[in-house]
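New to this. Comment on this protein:
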Amino acid sequence: MVCVNRRFRADEASCAKRASEALADALEAGIKARRIAIKLERSVCMGHCQTGPTVRLAPGGRFFHGPTLDQLDAILDELEGLCGT
């Protein structure tokens, strides 16, 4: 799951304000390229606006707070390990 929430007030932190939409796009592309048997879901809010963008391995998995595009390979590696691909 990737939070793509954008808050209405411009002065408030949000995952979308910190490029979570681009992060979600890149994760989807990486999942497809590696043929990982998982579906990425875009979430409205996970309650971690101050530390976003927020990525969560669901159900019940760990959170990644503030990942960048440079960290995607590590997240994809973890997904491959979880999915057995």
Remarks:
- The longest strand covers residues 54-56.
- The two ends are 19 Å apart (CA to CA).
